[in-house]
Design a protein that fits this description.
The chain has nine helices and seven strands; from the N terminus they run E-H-E-H-H-E-E-H-H-E-H-E-H-H-E-H. By secondary structure, it is α/β, with parallel strands linked by helices. Strands 2-5-1-6-7 form a five-stranded parallel beta sheet. A two-stranded antiparallel ribbon has the order 3-4. The two termini are 14 Å apart.
Length: 224
Amino acid sequence: MHRKINIAIDGPAASGKSAAAYLLAKKINYQFMDTGIIYRSFTNYCLKNKIDFENQDLVLSALQLFDMKWVNGHFLFNDQPSTEEIYNKNVTSKVPLIATLVEVRKLIVAKIQEIVQNQGFIVVGRDISSVVLPNAQLKIFLTSSLHIRSERRYQQYLKEGISITQEQVYNDMVIRDNIDKTRSTGQLVIVKDAIILDNSDFILATTVAKLKILYDNYFISHKK
C-alpha cells in the first residue's frame, strides 16, 4: 500500500477537476476537498446577508462569523453542509469578487493548510499548487479547451433549468478565464513541477483513469 501524500489539482472553470478528483479520491481512499466550495458557500452567505461585496471591511467582518469545519470528509459552514444553491448563476457571478480579496484568501488558505497537514488529501482549486499547497507531492493541472468547457457549463445550466444561450455561457467563460489568469491574488498558473493533463477528448471515466496512472507513476518514480 502506498504511503499517503497530498495531491494538488488546479485548472480553469468547468475543466472537470472536481468530478474527476472526487472519483479518484474514492478509488485510492483519499479525502477529497474542493476549495471552491468554501468561496461559493461564503459568497452565498454574503448574498443572503446582503453584504456589500465592494466593502472589504464588511466582507471580512462577515467572514469572522462564517465558521468553517472539516467533519467526516466534508465541510460544515456554521454547522451546516453546503447545498446545491451555491452553484446557481448568481453565486457563480459573484464568486470572483470574493476570491480576489487578499485577506479573505489568506484566512481561507490558512484553514485549508491546517486541515490537510496529516496528508491523504486531494485538493482542488485554482491556486492549490502555487499558493495553498506548494509542497504537495503530486501537482496536476487539469484543463480542457474553452469550447469544451463552455459546453459543459452550458449543459449544467440546462439541467438546472437556467435559461441562457450557448453564446452567453461562452462569453462568460472568456471573462472568467481572464479574471482567473490576471487577478493579483489566487491567480491561475501552471507551476513548474505540475503535470498538465488535457481532458478535452476524454469522458469522465477516462480522466479518472489518467489521474490514477499519474498517481501510480509518482510512487514508481519515488521508490527509495
